[in-house]
Every structure is written in C-alpha cells, then in structure tokens.
Amino acid sequence: MTSEPARPDPDLLLAALHEQEVRAHRGRLKVFLGMCPGVGKTYAMLRAAQQERVGGTQVVVGIVETHGRSETQALLEGLTVLPRRAVRHREATLEELDLEALRALRPELAVIDELAHTNAPGSRHAKRWQDVLELLEAGSNVLTTLNIQHVESRADAVRQITGATQHETVPDSLLDLADELELVDVTPENLRERLRDGKVYLGERAAAAEEGFFQESHLTALRELALRFTAERVDRQLRALRAPMAKQTVWRSGERLLVAVGSSPFSTQLVRWTRRLAAAQGAPWIAVHVEPLSPPAPEEQKRLDRNLALARELGAEVLVTQDTDMAAALVRTALQHNATQIVLGKPRHAWWSRFLPGGSLVDRVIQRGGNIDVYVVPAETAGPPLTFDSIDHELRSSAAEYGWVAGTVAGLTLAAQLLPQNYYLAAGLVFLLAVILLSLKVGRGPVLAAGILSALTWNFLLIPPRFTFHIEKIEDGLLFGTYFVVALVAGQLTARIRAQALAERRREGRATALFNLTRALAEARTLDEAVFAALRQADSHFGARTALLLAEDGSGPLHPHFAGSFALDDKERAVAEWSCRHRRGAGRFTDTLPASAGFYLPLVREDRSVGVLGVVVPREASLTLAQRDLLEAFARQLAMSVERDHLQAAGEREKLLAESERLHRTLLDSVSHELRTPLSVITSAVENLGTADAALRESLTGEIRTAARRLNRLVGNLLDQTRLESGVLRPRPDWCDIQDLVNAALDDVRDTLAGHPLEVSVPGDLPPVRADFTLTVQALANLLLNAALHTPAATPVFVSAGLERGGQRVYFVVADRGPGFPARMKDRLFKKFEQGDVTRAGGLGLGLSIVRGFVLAQGGEIVVGENPGGGAVFTIYLPHTPPQTPPSE
Question: What is the Cα–Cα distance from 550 to 255, expressed in whole angstroms?
Fold first, then answer.
C-alpha cells in the first residue's frame, strides 16, 4: 500500500540541514544544568576542565565565579585563567569576559560560567550566551553552567512556582545546539543544609533565601523541572538515534501514548480518555490523523479540526500522515515515535464489517503492532451504519469509467457473434484481455464491474448450452472464475498505483512549495524582499489572497505589510490581533471567530508572537488539513525570517551603543585633557602677572593668548562637529576669489605656522569660484593646522591652488614634508576622534572630520595621498562653473 510518513516540523528539517552544514566547523558545547544556585554546577564544570587538561587539551578559563568557596577555587590551579575586562558603568567598575582576548588565544576548550549573565553596557554582545555562540562559531569548545530558571521555555513555570520573574534567560534554540547536557542534581534537603552551612549565601541573605526562593516545596518543583527538561532532551536524542534504524519494535525506555483521531464525534471522547491516561502515567502522548486521499466533506472537516484542536489544547503532539491502510499508518507512526501504547475506538459498525479483508481496524492494528499495547475504548453511542460507499472511497468512480466498461464489453460481444460456436474459448480469452487492459484506465469499481459483466456475457451468450448460465465443462468453469480473480487483482493494483501517484503528487507539491519558500527567504537581502516572496508564493500555491501584520521589534501594535494582497478592515484586524495576542490560530476554519473572511496564524518564536499571517480563500473554497499544515510551515518560516531581522537590528543597535559609549568616553577623556592644559597655562600665567617685570609680563601675555586661541579652536571644533551631525549646517555659496580664500586661511593660522617654512603657489589669473567663504577658509585652516601641529619644527609646508584640466573643478593642496601616516590609517583618517600614530599629544581628532564635512556640504571631495618627497598631501576639490558675467569688483 502507498503511504506517506508523518509530516515532520519543517523548522526541524531546516534546522537539521543547517546543523549538518555547520557542525563540522562549530565547536562543541557542554552545559552543566542545575535546578538553582548552590547545587555545584561550577565545581562540576571545573572538575571536567581539569580532566580535559590532564588529557592534553588546551584549557582557558574565560570567566568563573567561585563566590569565595575554597574547594571551587582549588580547582582553578593549573588552569590558564584569562584576566577580566574592566568596564566603567555609572561610576562603578564592572568585570566582564574579555571576548577579544579569548578569541585571540583560540583555545581548544573555553570555560565560561553563568551562561545567562547580562553583559555590561558597551560590550560587544548584550548577553553572555551570545559570546559563547561566537566562540562556538570560531571553532572553540565551551563548558558552561546554567540554572533551569534561566531556560526561556521554563521561565513562566519558575515564576508561577517561586513568584520571582526571571529577567535573564537563554533561548531554547541555543540549548538545542548543545552537544552534551549534564544535570547536576542534589536533593532539596542537602541543598538547604548547604545553604545553612554558608556554602551558597552568607548571613542575612542566606536566611532570607531559606524562607523565600529556597523553600523545600520550591526546590522540589524546580528539581522536577530540571529532571523533566533533561529527560525530554534524552528522549529526543533516543528518537533521533532510532530514526535511521529499521524499526520492528518499540523500546520501552519510557511510556508514550498514541491515539487515532478522525472526523468521528467519538474521537472527542477518545482524545479526552487518552489525556486522562497520559496524565495518570505521567507520559507524553501523540494524536495522529491518517489523512484520506480524497478531501472530507465540509462537516467532517469541521469535526476533525475541532478534535485536533482539542488534542493540542490538552497537550498532545499532533501529527498528520497519509496511507491507504490506516492500521499500517498507526503502527508505523508508533514505531517512529517509540509510542508504547495505541488507543483506538471500539468499532460499532455492522456485523459483516469484521469479515472484510484483514478484519476491523482494531484487529489489523493488533496483528501489526507487535509488542505495542493496544487500548480499545468503547463508544458511548453507536456509530453510523457502514454503507457500501463508506467501505473505501476509492470504489467510487465516475460514470464515464463505467461507460467505458459497458461500451467495451458490448463491442466485444457483438464481435464474438461473428465467430463460429466452437471458438467460444478464444472469445473468452479476448474478454479476459479486455478486463486487464481496462484496469489500466479505469478504477477498481469499474474493473470489478467489467469482470462480472464479461463473465456473465460470455457464459450466457457463448458457452454451450447458449442463452443459459449452466456450465458443463470444468475448464469453462475455471475460466469463468478467473474473470473474477483477474478483475479483483487488477482493480486492487490499479487503485494502489493511483493512490501512490496521488500521494507522490501531493508530497511533491508540499516539498516543492517549502523548497521554493526557503530558497526565496535565503536569497532575500532584506525582510521586505523575504515577505514579498513568501506572500506571492502563498497566493499562487493556495489560490488565495494574503496579508501579513508585523509588530515593530517583536512587540507593540501590529502594522500591515505593504506586500499583502488583502486589505484588512477593522473586523479582520481585530481577529488578527486576537490571534497574535493569544498565539493561536483564529478566523475561518477555526472555532474562534469563524465568521471572519480570513484564516489567521500567529508567527510565534519561543514565547512571543512577532506577527500574524492571514489567508483569505474564496468563500466556496476550503483549506484541507494538509494545506493548513503547509500554511503553518509557511508561518514558521516567516517567523524565523522576522526574528532574524530583529536579531540583526538588535545587533546593529548594540554595535551603535558600544560605539557611542566608546566615543563618549573618548570625548570626555580628550576634552578634559584639552581643557585642562590651556586652563593650567592661563591660571599659572595669571598668578605670575602681578609679580612679573615688563619682559616676563609680555611673555606671560603671549602664553595666555596662545592658550586662549587653543581653547577657542577646541570649542569651535566641538560646535562645528555638532552642526555637521545635527544637519543644521547650510552652505551659503557666493563668488569668491581663490587668492582671498588662501590668504584668509593663512592669516588664521599664521602664528601656528611661524616655525615652518611656507611656500604658496596660487596663479593670479584663476577665475572666481562659487563657494561658502567661511567653510572653505576653515577647511583650509584646519589642514594647515594639521600640517603645523603634526610635523617636526622647521618642516616646510606647501600651499597651492588651481583649476583642474577641463575647468570642472577647483583644487586646493596642502602638503608637508613630515613623517606622513601609515597606509592602514588611510581609511579612518577622516573619522571622529581618530589621530595618527605619530601625532603629538593634544587635539581631539576632530579637525580632519570637520574638513571632510565642510567640503562634502559644498558638493566637493577631499583626497589624501603621500608626498613623493615624504610627508602627506591633502587635496580639496570643489565644483566649478564659470560665471555668465564677470563679477563686479
């Protein structure tokens, strides 16, 4: 029989493919899990690290919190401990993991405590688990620790148990990457004794913890959470190990129930009965629906949806599979998921149904089930009577197929009348051949009808004695019976081939749709491109109109995406918001607001909704269970794309915050130093003015003047940079003489250039240029100051200007014979607070940044290069358009 295995979660398939690609390059992760602080996670981790060191592994301790415990501190002996990075935050110094230094060492094994820790502001990543992920991607193995209260999926349960909200959590997806998880377990009694002995907290904090978080009831519940989390992981690993194996029996490593769910009203009773049994045994359970090849009637579809929704609400894992043999599908699914018990309903159909091939469904499951326990639950009310049409939907064929059969038999009968009577055996063989050929074109029912009709026609019209149903010869009787055997076998083979072809087409359609979606999402450069591609594919595949509503940064109100092909009114938008808020499907085809035009699925990632996908099909159309299953896969893939976009945006914000923090610190340090130096000069000079003679007074006055100019330049640079960044700078171009621009810049910095030979080359016949006089003079003055301040005394400075060949641009050149700059600095010379490696002390590193801003504001360009004779060359280019009439003098 043709069959299709239970459809797995597409997210898991894609994650598995990605895992195969990166596992060869990614480091291994081992997590030491505990129910709460004080169980000995760090001790167990360091003991494992020492064992690795003894085995010859290079071990580096990135960060470990010993909390003053001598036995834990002793385990650090012999290990390389990385110095921590000091971070200044709010007048306090925090110690954090030095990720850059750890990556530079490229250790085989890194030891990092407290995976859920939140890093100090200004760090590369907001969370320590992001640091660990970067190390893993760099190829280092990592040992780390974690409490069950910090697991994202268990945070709500911990809050309900202890009343404490967890603000530091680790996503379950990271733990899924862990190659090994070791549970560090102690009894609640032993842990409370450790608390009283001061091995967890000290003093008043220990007493408060014993009466609060460390209550015995809390610890017992947390211990159960940790044990269950570990058991679930082991169960998933067992199922993964069994996946490639030929499954002939289940392994009773733990109980798991499987219940068959269909469109019958009795399925509701079965689901509830299985939930009670699973709760009594403390076992997980699976609800399986075997999907028929032909879609169910609308009323049956609604009942099926309610039954599957009830199973989900009661905690079942819902699976959908396809098979023409329901018993084979149920047993196969049970073997795949290691289900030890199958729950079925007791048949209440007509008595003759038990004599069908293989018996009833219960009989066939018991025959195939091997060592699987089978529970048969009697129905509270009798089921609907079994009719001929309900035995197998594939017996129903079109009238055209029956017409083909009748026409073929009638034609052969007329042709047989032309044969002599003693040729009736040849005619019988031709009839038999016709039955076989018809089986290639028509269904099981018409083939059976062809066999019966051919046999009766041959017997009545051709076998002697003619026009009777009496058969005298044994060989004639055998041939007569052969018609029925051939018809049944051929019809069964035809039905099997048709079912297999239909199942293959459906499977290919689903696989192709998912492949096209994942490829489009992978190729999309932005979220908008990904959403547009996904919605267009959904429109095409489902013959529907779609809408997508997204929440900014994963929270806040929903906003429709422009790529949607369906405009939501207030009513439809309210349904979408309900679906997002409750993280459940809503609208048409559901029990929640079914009068809506659209079917809405939330885009759920972990414990939050990041948006809603809406699908509107024509009123006369419907969505089958397979189509809704595929839509859920679409929604999950879209949710992953949205989350990836949010993570990228969060990463960019973190980088900006870190850069802002760095610039803030640099600015404060530079400004404080630059202000202090001239202020100190002024203060000292003013204090000595009263007792100084005339010569000294003149010298002190010159020092005050120089320091004041330095302060003025400092404040001016800060104001200019603020004007550039705020966007309020507006150039005011006017016709300017190039000689006047150069002379004005030289006058501004003549005192600073006093110790440098100056060479100026500006042709006298240059045409005027349209530029902002003040901005251009200040840009030239900053370049001249840069040449004077960052070159040794007596170093010549060259200034020239001219008109570029073609007359499209005017250029100004400032060059020197100083030490120049390293090639690696060329790309960052014009950034804020950047200074050359050979610069003298002083300056904020804003001069060149301001020059670039002033030049770009006028539509120009600044280029830096090396002077052939040594030193640096800065060239300013400004656009030039010859004036229509010469400017007046």
Answer: 41
* Domain residue ranges of the chain, discontinuous segments joined by +: 26-242, 257-387, 397-500, 526-654, 729-879
pLDDT at res. 183: 93
- Each residue of 798-856: pLDDT tens digit? 999 999 888 889 999 999 988 887 766 666 677 765 655 444 444 556 678 778 888 88
Tell me if residue 693 falls in helix, strand or coil.
Answer: coil
Angstrom distance (rounded) from CA 245 to CA 848:
68
- Token representation of residue 548: 């997508």
User: How buried is 352 (Cβ within 10 angstroms: 0-12 exposed, 13-18 middle, 19+ buried)?
Assistant: exposed
* CATH entry, 729-879, from 3.30.465.10, 3.30.565.10, 3.60.140.10, 3.20.20.150: 3.30.565.10
At what angle are helices 625-689 and 298-313 packed, to 10 degrees?
50
**Distance between CA atoms of 441 and 447, rounded to whole angstroms?**
9
The pLDDT value recorded for residue 273 is 92
What torsion do the CA atoms of 342, 348, 352, 355 make, to the nearest 10 degrees? Answer: 10
Instruction: Look at residue 702 in the predicted model and tell me its pLDDT.
Output: 79
> Which ranges of 727-802 does DSSP label H, i.e. alpha helix?
738-748, 773-789
Rounded CA-CA distance 321/3 in Å is 8
**The predicted structure's pLDDT at residue 404:** 87
For residue 537, how many C-alpha atoms fall within 13 Å in the half-sphere facing its CB?
25
List the structure tokens of 633: 């896969």
Q: Taking the chain (889 residues) in consecutive chunks of 10 residues, what is each chunk's mean pLDDT?
A: 44 46 72 91 94 93 87 90 84 85 92 92 85 90 94 87 86 87 91 82 74 86 90 82 68 86 88 91 90 74 84 87 84 90 77 55 87 84 48 59 88 85 82 81 80 84 83 82 77 71 74 82 85 89 90 77 90 91 86 87 83 90 79 88 81 72 60 64 79 80 76 65 63 90 88 86 90 87 85 89 89 90 69 54 63 86 86 91 61
Q: CA 33 to CA 225: how far, in whole Å?
A: 11
Q: In what order do the strands lie in the sheet with 341-345?
A: 3-4, 317-323, 285-291, 257-260, 341-345, 373-377
Which CATH number applies to 26-242? 3.40.50.300
Same fold, 26-242 and 257-387: yes
Asked, as a colleague might, if the bond just before 465 is cis with ω within 30 of 0, I would say yes
The three-state (H, E, C) secondary structure of 407-432, written as one string: HHHHHHHHHHCCCCHHHHHHHHHHHH
**CA 316/CA 305 separation, integer angstroms:** 14
Burial class (CB in 10 A: 0-12, 13-18, 19+), 136: buried
Measured in whole angstroms, the distance separating CA 434 from the mean position of its chain's CA atoms is 59
Beta bridge partners of 547: 614
Rounded distance, CA 501 to CA 439, Å? Answer: 15
CA distances (Å), origin 561, targets 224, 353, 549, 643: 44, 55, 6, 16
| Whole-number Å distance between alpha carbons of 403 and 409 | 10
Q: What is the DSSP letter of 370?
A: T
- Count CA atoms within 13 Å of residue 81 on its CB side: 14
- The domain covering 257-387 belongs, at the CATH homologous superfamily level, to HUPs (3.40.50.620)
Question: Class of 526-654 per CATH?
Answer: alpha beta
The C-alpha atoms of residue 323 and residue 292 are separated, in whole angstroms, by: 7
Nearest by Cα to 69 from 200, 162, 168: 200
How much is the pLDDT for 441? Answer: 80
CB 75 within 8 A of CB 104: no
Of 652, 648, 708, the closest CA to residue 677 belongs to 708
Supply angle C-alpha 374, 379, 382, rounded to 5. 135
Measured between alpha carbons, how far is 696 from 688 in angstroms, rounded to an integer? Answer: 9
Residue type, 58: Q
Q: What gap in Å lies between CA 854 and CA 649, rounded to an integer?
A: 31
Place of tokens 């994942």: 518
